[in-house]
Amino acid sequence: MFKKLASLMATGALVASTLMPATASAAVTRSFNPGSLIKGSGPTVYYYAEDGKRYVFPNEKTYFTWYENFDTVIQIPDNMLSTLPLGKNVTYRPGKKMVKITTDPRVYVVDRGGMLRHVDSEEIAKTLYNINWANQIDDVPDSFFTNYKVGNKVESASEYRPADVMAGTTTISQDKGFDDTMAAISIGNTMTGFVPNSMTIKKGTTVTWTNQDSASHSVIGTGFQSDALGYNKSYNFKFNTVGSFEYKDGINPSITATIHVVQ
Amino acid sequence: MKYKYLFVLAAACLFATQAQAATLSPGDLIKASGPAVYYYSQEGKRLVFPNENTYKTWYTDFSTVKTITDAELAAITMGGNVTYKPGVRLVKIVSDSKVYAIAAGGVLRHVATEEIARNLYGADWNTKVDDIPVGFFSNYSIGSSILNSTDYSPSASTAQAVSIDTDRAAKTTPPVCTTCGSEPVTPTTTQETIQIALSASQNTIKINDVITFTASAQYSASIKEIRIYFDNNLVTACQNANVCSGDFAMPSVLDKETYQVKTEVTALDTTKETKTLDLARASTTEPDSEVTISVDREVIEPGQTTGITVQADETVDVKEIIIYVDDVAKKGCNYLGRSCKWSQIFDGPLGTEFNTYGLVTSVSGVTYRTQTKTITLAANSIPYVTIETGKTYILKGESMEAVVSASDEDGIQSIEILDSQKNVLKTCSGAAPCTLSTGPWVTEGMVTLWGRATDVPGSSNEQSIQFEVR
Q1: ipTM, 2 decimals?
Q2: How many domains are there within chain A?
């Protein structure tokens, strides 16, 4: 077990290879949505968020605080994956477990946004996580401790109810402070095109396109049209009507993509 | 690739026999009974080396590591991860082909071309690239790209990074608590600032434009309100949302060079933050002499095709050329030389005008704009004319042959060849190419020749060519 953990620490990211059922890696798709779990041909799994970035699971333990298995992981083409900018690391799901680091005896509960709150006494820990609270503590590797912020201590059990905290943060997007009023699309080179190529959003969502390619691209659809976008330049449009919207790159018109807007 | 594992083992073997209490000073390397080695920072925190590669950019061995007790180590607050020492190595991440150099404060700068990498790190630069595990990528921030070799110096960057502390000081961090004495600094939510992104649907503004402004905020507490102002006029206010967007019509008189867009974000815990964005008034679009645009036929009939060519002279290190028709980008050419060509069908009622211009971006980031040409739809199109000379220059005393060709849907009545003062040198009737041997030329300098064609209904068009007499 130690050796396995060590190798996870070494890659610095969660790899799903040994646990992925063979069927899940069958189809490669160019269509995914904010909130999808995505991977390329390699084993690393990412969370695709509303800001268009892919968020890294630093290890398996972090992944399993959010998901029970890898059934919903979608495989996308490698060049699409590398077009998406990297976000920060995913932190523990609030309320699920307590954490500590190996070289410090302090025990923390996890609050929204990767906020660690020191549990002041064994008494409180017992109230929050029952008699076997000691089994509810995970060691966070030193090198991932920096992904967390340290907040105020939990001084009484009424300040923090694990069940409420968990119910209040059901998705990684919520934990990171995103909601479904925004979505983002990356524009890659002529091989990758728009990433994702097809996306489903709710009515009223503002979509932001950002050019991640060194060459210019633009976005032209019915009712919306951008200027030529240089590297790292963005354009956004709010979709207020239900329907499927096809759009293309005005500079390379063979690059097309679709946004499906639902109620 | 089990670096951490090896690193852990190596350190463990080295320190099994060393155990001595020590007084610590900032800059010391420390460890306790466990294998991990930390950097003891000026702020009195311990910094983590995420892997062996990171450690090796700063130190050659473990000989200066001091051992303290587990209790002493536990009392020292964790202060984040050490990043690569600037200038020593190049890095990339596994899933991405981009190679980065490291600048002060853990800033990654994309090395734009292989040639720059070779200039900076030698012919064997590709042996100096480390993969950063993707889970540690968030310890770094992305800076501007390195577009030429003078933009970055590995040795100067390394020299500047005297210690891990001085390197971290280059990071933009929130101010450190100075009144906290020896107590470990415990950041609270109030020290966190709201992260705001503010954007506009256009970078420049013209009168009566309707521009969409969008602000989005990220914060650990919920966002209570986002307000967006344009030039101190409220555009929109959104409650209980992370994203806010609103349209605003630009005034009919723009008397300022730049206009400010401002967003005010208030969180539930009453934390406030503002962000501003300056929008420039669209310039009167003075053309640059380095770039030119030519239109095959500026007057065509509805439904006909014409070509547009944008060209940059040899002083421009062209990165990209984009051709616009009525402000819509129609064609982009990347790294394909100095010219870019686009043809399309123009349709509409007689008299419709289309404006076309080109923007040329150089590798060093300068944008050049051509003059704007107008394509007009008329009942009778003007002929398509080309003039060619065999050479771009001749020697004094030599002659030059010029050929003018023309075509038109209505047939060509005549083709003429003219000198720079537009005096007719030769007239050929019919559509056959008209050829003239000019010269001999005895004066050095640039010579201009014109070709003119007239179609059967009587519309004419001309094109010029230049050559040099040396």
Answers
A1: 0.77
A2: 3
